[in-house]
Write a structure and sequence with these properties.
Largest sheet: 2 strands, antiparallel
CATH class of the largest domain: Mainly Alpha
Order of helices and strands: HHHHHHHEHEHHHH
Strand order of the largest sheet: 1-2
Number of domains: 2
Bound molecules: protoporphyrin IX containing FE, 2-acetamido-2-deoxy-beta-D-glucopyranose
Structural class: mainly alpha
CATH superfamily of the largest domain: Peroxidase, domain 2
Length: about 325
């Protein structure tokens, strides 16, 4: 009898993710024990070919979570009859889709219809951050994939917004101002295309001059970067561009932020104190970034029986 009860509670514990319908650490330990390893292996292989995938995945995760929650709605391809989130303006340059597709292909081979695309984005992002030199954090899983992807719902903050105004978008997702400042530290890796900041380089707000808050050597450098190629871009962190470190905060304190919002973090009264702490304390940045990512990964998630587990991340199962 007691043995039976112990067995029963053990079974309940195993099944608890389904019973309580919430995210949990290692959600796939029974349904797909190697899930996290499989994702990690794909990310390792891709990172070895191109270490800038960390930036692509981080931005994908952010855009996914801020539109309808972390439900992989960003991955849905448009069809001839229906356009998806991918076709909305800010999506434009989101990258890394093929990494998610490859992980999905291997996961479907190992354990069909078990691991959600939303969890693949979350895990792949976590793994790529660690490979780039950032924290290696534990992140709960159990997300389900959404059934809607609508370009009209894409309402992300823009790079020309003030800190206060951008914070409204984060507040709406129950994220704090400090968490926003910490998450923007993701701009320690990756690129910005010139269209997102070229208004700062000349005739800023009709003054006939560059943005006075940008270091003049940087104005010259970015003007050069933006004069070459067909779709010019430059690094968001102009010093340690591919390394996930706290150098971003040091750069903006030197007036070397590329995006206006990044630069404003260093001067706005609500964020400058934290920026100064993060600039001098890499460990604090690492720790705070990990917790803010875990929290972002919980935004409006679908769990239990909601949504579905897509067979292919670019299409709804019903398609
Ligand atoms: C106020 C909030 C934010 C604004 C206005 C913003 C804006 C931008 C813009 C305009 C770009 C350049 C995109 C391009 O030219 O391709 C960019 C890139 C990027 N953003 Fe943000 N961002 C914000 C928050 C975040 C957050 C929360 C994360 C992740 C935690 C993030 C991660 C990235 C990364 C890694 C890149 C580089 C992408 C690449 O190299 O492909 N951003 N962001
Ligand atoms: C670049 O980053 C390194 C490491 O944080 C720092 O020592 C150096 O002063 C930085 N250089 C510039 C030009 O900001
Ligand atoms: C979605 O589109 C991408 C590229 O446009 C393609 O590689 C992928 O196979 C598509 N996925 C589906 C499920 O149609
Ligand atoms: C990958 C993708 O679908 N990109 C689209 C992003 O949005 C722009 C502008 O709406 C489209 O032109 C792109 O095709």
């Amino acid at each position: 009898m007691t043995k039976m009860m112990i067995l029963m509670s053990f079974l309940l514990l195993l099944l608890s993710p389904c019973v309580f319908a919430q995210l949990s650490i290692n959600f796939y330990r029974v349904s797909c024990p190697n899930a996290e390893q499989i994702v990690k292996q794909v990310v390792r292989e891709e990172f070895a070919k191109d270490s800038s995938i960390t930036a692509g995945l981080l931005r994908m995760h952010f855009h996914d979570c801020f539109v309808r929650g972390c439900d992989a709605s960003i991955l849905i391809n448009s069809t001839s009859s229906k356009s998806s989130e991918k076709t909305a303006g800010p999506n434009l340059t989101v990258r890394g889709y093929e990494i998610i597709d490859e992980a999905k292909r291997r996961l479907e081979a190992a354990c069909p219809s078990k691991v959600s695309c939303a969890d693949i984005i979350t895990l792949a992002t976590r793994d790529s951050v660690a490979l780039a030199g950032g924290p290696n954090y534990v992140v709960p899983t159990g997300r389900r994939d959404g059934l809607v992807s609508n370009p009209n719902e894409v309402n992300l903050p823009g790079p020309g917004q003030s800190v206060t105004s951008a914070f409204q978008s984060f507040k709406a997702k129950k994220m704090t101002l400090n968490e926003m400042v910490v998450l923007l530290g993701a701009h320690t890796v990756g690129f910005a295309h010139c269209g997102f900041f070229s208004n700062r380089l000349s005739n800023f707000q009709g003054t006939g001059k560059p943005d006075p808050t940008m270091d003049s050597a940087l104005v010259t450098k970015l003007t050069q970067d933006c004069a070459s190629g067909s779709n010019p871009k430059t690094f968001l962190d102009q010093n340690t561009s591919n390394v996930f470190d706290n150098e971003f905060y040091r750069q903006i304190r030197l007036n070397r932020g590329v995006l206006k919002i990044d630069q404003e973090l260093a001067s706005d009264a609500t964020s400058s104190g934290l920026v100064s702490n993060l600039a001098s304390n890499p460990f604090q940045f690492s720790q705070s970034f990990a917790s803010a990512m875990v929290k972002m990964g919980r935004i409006e998630v679908l769990v239990g029986k909601a949504g579905e587990i897509r067979k292919s991340c670019g299409a709804f199962n019903s398609a």
